[in-house]
Design goal:
This protein has 78 residues and is mainly alpha-helical. The chain is built from four helices and two strands; from the N terminus they run αααββα. A two-stranded antiparallel ribbon has the order 1-2.
Length: 78
């Protein structure tokens, strides 16, 4: 994916990935080719807040096996 994708392009790609399969942040980062912390702070937290993604374990956001999946709202965007 590289470092040159726009925010919208990266978010759309994340939505597509998490629609395909529930993924951990480290898996998303690896598939995109970016740092896990960067992915969490720059994309995942905002996408959760905006209702585009949801936690696999919503009752415990810091769950050691936490993963992300695309919501119905997120699916409308892809």
């Amino acid at each position: 994916f590289g470092k040159r994708g726009t925010v919208d392009e990266v978010e759309t790609f994340i939505l597509k990935l998490c629609n395909w399969k529930t993924l951990k942040s480290i898996e998303i980062a690896s598939l995109i080719g970016r740092n896990q912390d960067h992915i969490k702070t720059s994309y995942l937290r905002r996408m959760i807040r905006d209702g585009l993604l949801e936690y696999k374990y919503p009752e415990n956001p810091s769950h050691k096996k936490q993963a992300y999946r695309t919501t119905e709202r997120g699916k409308e965007r892809i």
